[in-house]
Amino acid sequence: MKVMGIHHDSVVDGEGLRTVIFFAGCPHHCFGCHNPESWNLKNGKEMSVQEIMDEVLSNPLTDITFSGGEPFCQAKEVKELARELKKLNKNIWMYTGYTIEQLKSSEDKHVGELLEYCDVLVDGPFIIEKRDITLPFRGSSNQRIIKLK
């Protein structure tokens, strides 16, 4: 997987204390994106599931957030990581520029399988005209927090 970075102890990327994995690659290119260097898949560092697990487990008391970039750009690989994290009973939040409707209608089976491991989905592109810093856990009012589990 191509990973931009892993940050521990976040309190702004989902409920509770979280380890956030920022994946590389994003087709959305939202104007005003807070992480535009993540758009290019080549900007990420290649990491295996085990390397990411080792980093995540170095801080075992946190739950997990997948962000980006766009985690669904690497759905096949990211679902393997999600599967291993769920074996450890980790709660997984996922940020995506896609809507849940787009994800559910995807013809890529890995997208649906990755979605199955997600507890909470924050969906929709960031829209700068709808930016609202008072909203918890999202950047613009069009984005939804959807509890899947």
From TrEMBL:
Residues 12-149 form the Radical SAM core domain. It catalyses: glycyl-[protein] + reduced [flavodoxin] + S-adenosyl-L-methionine = glycin-2-yl radical-[protein] + semiquinone [flavodoxin] + 5'-deoxyadenosine + L-methionine + H(+). This is Anaerobic ribonucleoside-triphosphate reductase-activating protein. Belongs to the organic radical-activating enzymes family. SUPFAM superfamilies: Radical SAM enzymes (SSF102114). Its EC number is 1.97.1.-. Activation of anaerobic ribonucleoside-triphosphate reductase under anaerobic conditions by generation of an organic free radical, using S-adenosylmethionine and reduced flavodoxin as cosubstrates to produce 5'-deoxy-adenosine. Its cofactor is [4Fe-4S] cluster. One of its GO terms (molecular function) is metal ion binding. It holds the Pfam family Fer4_12. PROSITE patterns: RADICAL_ACTIVATING, RADICAL_SAM. Keywords: 4Fe-4S, Iron, Iron-sulfur, Metal-binding, Oxidoreductase, S-adenosyl-L-methionine.
